C-alpha cells in the first residue's frame, strides 16, 4: 500500500502522536511543546486539503484498519462531506491555536496543548468513521478533552458551567449507548453502510422499535448540536470558556449536525420501511425554534461572548432548516452555510476577546466604557463579524441564506411550511442585526470618561491576527461561492446516494 493510500488515517494519527509528545516536553521545554502542537495543526490542515482534492474526484475511499474488512473491522470513510469537515476543523483549530499562543492563553495551564490535540483526534475521528460505535468512541474522546479545555484557566464561573456541561453530556452519551445497543440487537451490525441494508430487511414486528431508536439517536445528535429545547447547556458553557477554546468549540455543534446528515439518509432513508425518514417531520419545527431562540438570545445578551454563543445556536437553527428539506438543493445550501457559520462563530469569539483585553474591568460587556486602544479598528472587526453572523451582504452569510431561501421553496411536502421557514430566517436576521447594532453602539460609540483620568492602556496588536485571518477566510468563502456550492452540490449527491457508500464500504454491487 502506497503512502498516499494511508492519507485517510493521517488526521487521526497526527494528533494522536502529537498529544503524548506535547505531554512529555511541556514541563521542561514549553516552547517545544507549543511548536509540536502548532506543527500538528498545520500538518492536519495539509492532510485535510489533500483529502479534499482527492475526494473531489468523486470516489468514496475507505481505509480498513488492520486490513479487517467491513463490516467486521474498523473502517474510515472519506467522501466529499467528511473531507469538507476535516478541512474546516483543521482550519478553525489552527486559527484558535495561533490566537491562544499569541495571547498567552495557552500558558494558563500545562495541559492545554495535549488536550487540544486530543480534541482534534476526537473531531477528526468522528468525521471519518464509518461505523456508529466508533462514532460514539470519538464523541467520548472529544468530549473528555473538551471538559479539560472548558475548565482551562479555572475560575468559579467555568467550574459551575463545567459541571453542567459534564452532566448534560454524560446523559447524552448514555442515551447514545442505549440507542446503539438497540440498533445492534435489531440489525447485528454497527457499520453504517451494512446497517442501512439490514434495516431495510427488518420485518413489520421490528418497525415500531426501529422508529423509536431512530428518534432516540437523532435526539442525541440534537443534544450535541444544541437544538432547542436541548440547547440550554451551550450559552453558559461557551460564554465563560477561554475565547480561543470557544472559537474551536464553534465546530463542536457542527459534529451533531454532521452526524444527523450522515446517519439519517444512510440508515433511516427510503429503504427503512416504517422508520424511513422518521426524524424528518420534527426537524423543521425544531430548527425554526432553535433559530428564534438563538437570535433572540443575541438580542438580549449582556456581553459579546454571550452574543457569540447565542449566534452559534441561531446559525445552527438556520442551517438545520435547510437540512430538514433532505433534497440535493437544500443540502447544498446547508453545506455552504455550515462552513460559513462555523467561521463566523469563531470570528465572534475571537473579536470578543480582542475587545475584552482592551476594556479592563468593562471586559466585553454590552455597556459603555472609557475609550480604549485601537477602538476604531476593533470596531470595524466587530462590524464585519456581526455582518457575517447575521447574514448581511457582502459576506458569505448573505449568500448562504439566499441559497437556503431559494432551495426550500420547491421542497416536496413543504407547500405551506416554506413560507414559515422564510419568515423565521428573515425575522431572525432582523433580530440579530438589531442585537449586534445595540451592543456595538454601546461599546464603540458611547464612551464615558475614565474615573481616574488615565489614558487608554496600550495593547499589542498580536491578538488581532487570528480574527483578521478568520474574517479574511469569510471574504474568501464569499468570493469562492461558485466553487464552494459546486463542491457542496457534489457532496449532497453523495450523501443522498446511500448505495454508493454501500458499494465503497462493503464492496457490494
Automatic annotation (TrEMBL):
It is found in: Cell membrane; Membrane. The keyword Transmembrane applies. Keywords: Cell membrane, Membrane, Transmembrane, Transmembrane helix. Residues 130-415 form the NADH:quinone oxidoreductase/Mrp antiporter transmembrane domain. It is a multi-pass membrane protein. It comes from the Bacteria. Belongs to the CPA3 antiporters (TC 2.A.63) subunit D family. This is Monovalent cation/H+ antiporter subunit D.
